[in-house]
Amino acid sequence: MKQNNTFHPALRVLHWVMAAAIMAMLFIGVAMVSTVSSLHGLLVAIHKPLGLMILMLVIVRLWLRFSTAKPALPATLPAWQKFLAHLSHWALYVMMLAQPLIGWAMLSAAGYPVTLGHVVLPPIVPLSNNAYAILRPLHSLVAMALFITVMLHLAAALYHALILRDGVFSSMAGAYKRKRFTPGALDNPADAE
Q: What is the model's pTM?
């Protein structure tokens, strides 16, 4: 597979849509479990379908990740930073897949239906108080780990964008460098296209 300077446009769009959805989901989740107001029902109604949307999007994103060319990390990065970059990306993918599945399993174990519009999805684990007692804190734990990993990912992205300026951030942001104009640059008619 050939190397590119930027990720595929669909991957870039999915990245930013999912970043917004995951951050919204994390804050909605915190608000949802910390309120007993009338907003609780609305937050739950947003939380469930948003979780299913993230699950579907991460599956599409993984397919695109494996089927499109990816930019290489800069050769100037030390091996340990490259290792951490790959490790953090895989950790994010695992958590983005696991978190909605854990939530779905938790609701299934508690006997709550998971709906997408008017479609009731099948439970993925049997009704079980014991399973719910494990899945409920696990859902919170993975949410916290996801939040921390996303914040570290953001810090690394800003480091690459603002300090190193090595093209890592622009590979996902879709930015590109303009070619400098030099006199005589358009002497070749093929360059005008």
A: 0.83
Give dist(CA 47, CA 56) in Å, integer: 14
Average pLDDT (140-151) is: 96
How far apart, in whole angstroms, are the C-alpha atoms of residue 191 and residue 74?
A: 28
Check if the beta carbon of residue 96 is closer than 8 Å to that of residue 42: no
pLDDT reported for residue 189: 42
Alpha-carbon span 157 to 89, nearest angstrom: 12
59-95 pLDDT per residue, tens: 999 999 999 998 999 989 999 999 999 999 999 999 9
Whole-Å CA distances, 27 to 12, 30, 105, 143, 168: 23, 5, 21, 10, 28
